[in-house]
Amino acid sequence: MRKLLIIDDDKPVRHSISAFLEDSGYGVIEAVDGPAGLERFEQGDIDLVITDLRMPGMDGVSVLRQLRERSCDIPVIVISGAGVMSDVVSALRLGACDYLIKPIVDMEVLEHSIEKALERQDLLAENKRYRDELESANRGLRENLRVLERDQAAGRQVQRRLLPQPQTTVEGYSVAHHIAPSLYLSGDFVDYAHISKRYLAFYLADVSGHGASSAFVTIWLKHLVSRMVREEGLFADHDSFESGANTMLEYINRELNEISLNHHLTFFVGVIDTHTHDMRYVVAGHLPMPVLIRDGKAEYLTGRGKPVGIFKDISWHIHAMTLPEQFSLVCFSDGVLEILPDDSLQKKEAHLLELIAQKAQNLETVCDALNIKDVSETPDDIAVLTITRGF
Predict the structure, then answer these.
(1) Residues 108 and 221 placed together within one structural domain of the fold
(2) How do residues 181-190 score in pLDDT, each as one tens digit?
(3) Domain span holding position 25
(4) 145 in a structural domain
(5) What is the pTM of this model?
(6) Who contacts 82 (Cβ-Cβ below 8 Å, separation ≥6)?
(7) 13 lies in a domain?
């Protein structure tokens, strides 16, 4: 039952209003003047106040002002036998929700005004509750976001520390890379090492998906390949030079199928004998193909193969070639195609080849040609790996 407080010094009017509202289902409390009404209001449990405007001592405007100081939300209906416009303006400025003129001939008008005021009050209370709940949810989201940002910052720091430093061999081979993640963490990864002071091994891997789960796979990949190099002598001798790229991918493929990480990878894996300048490489679902620049011309390497982590018990074909005295080998992840303006894969690849042929000699010129370091937001991770000699 909604409780109404009626403040009116006119006893017959007060009783008639009270009787009608009680018959309509309201709980009604009567007060003979302003101070008595305010004292009862302070006891609480009042949903709406009806006050006369013209009363001795404390008038209705003063009552309304006191009510606003105590509760800005309580709905107040003002009634008065003197319909003076200044009184109406004062009451409405103080937040009265309605103003009725005595005598109230049709009590249903008053009942309608009460229903509308209480309905509005309920909507305001519900809106406030929603705002409070939303603010509470937002506080939780902000805290969760801060935790996520801290976690991602830690993950990014780990991922950066796992990436190799640019290096140059005594035979004049220089290797460098750049990764532009689409999110805070990257699903692209590169690694390279000069093994046994002879074999320059390198790979560029692109993990399916984005974000933290893909980044965790790159960390797992780094650990797995490093263990193969350290414990099993991957790329450490001539036999492994000839077959190590396939051996590496077969091992990773078995591990992915056994542990079910729900990710697959594309790879370009290569190894160069820096004494003879021969190169062996494997392609595993990788696009675009690496670009070889020599004698002022650029061309894509040839090769094809299935991605790693989808099919069981497969092998990859090892391609062989001899590198010239002066060359640049530029490898990209497929994210580079997303920043090219063309609308088809063939046009994108042709455009990429043209840009690389004109300007690319090392990592800096490749990135400048494609404005990779100036791209603030990318739909996919972009990784660039360059191997050069003689430039």
Answers:
(1) no
(2) 776 677 899 9
(3) 3-128
(4) no
(5) 0.65
(6) 53, 54
(7) yes
